């Protein structure tokens, strides 16, 4: 399934379609619902919940990167994080959106087991 670390799904592709494709390819699929991510705290919490981050997760951008580049608590293999309606965060706080996207992109480039896919629905 891996194409690049962080990618925008083609227009009209739903989160469900990405999840089904990831699972067919043998990857673990994890979903962040963008409707819940209107600020930094909510976005960091939603990502942490989706990937079952450990108790030591510090709910900040550095800790987000650390967890995304580790993922040792998840089963071996590829992991696909699908963020549906990701633009919801940008609508409410563009600076936070760009910072979080930067961390996701950096982490997915560092951790070859992680792919992040952004969907509009």
Automatic annotation (TrEMBL):
Matching entries from InterPro entries are given as: Barstar, Barstar-like_sf
Barstar (barnase inhibitor) domain span:
31-112
SUPFAM superfamilies in alphabetical order: Barstar-related
Give one Pfam family: Barstar
UniProt lists the family membership as follows: Belongs to the barstar family.
| Protein name listed in UniProt | Barstar (barnase inhibitor) domain-containing protein
Q: Which organism is it from?
A: Longimycelium tulufanense
